Amino acid sequence: IDALRDQPEDAWEPLRHLSIQYRLYPSVSFSVFPDKVEVYWILPGTRSDEGHGLHAVYVRDQPETEQERAALDEAVRFGCEDIVNAEDLWITGQSEPGLRAPGGPGYVVFGRNEPVVQHFHARFREQIGDESLAGPPDARFRGD
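-> structure tokens emitted (144 positions)
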């Protein structure tokens, strides 16, 4: 940002430094980057405590060199393994059993940095018509 202060706004390229996130309720996520789009599908399993994920990457330009291919592979690996698996899925696996346990919390409050999760649960409440879900419309969900 500091480097942009001395440049005219029409020279800025903010999309080179951002990702845009879209969610297709209830289980599809699109992450749009300058050079690729990643799609994640979350699919139910055969039990209530089971799910499956599918991930696809669509690149704007095919890698032309082995170095470009390696950089793309590393970016995909980093996103899948270091972010989604090691952070998102790990914390879900650690917290969900506590939410389902007898005596678990009646609700969870999501922070301001989780608008997608807030939106998901607001749409979920609409779909099931459960008025017993207390709290602000986009900030809480029941843990049971």
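The chain is about 35% helix and 25% strand.
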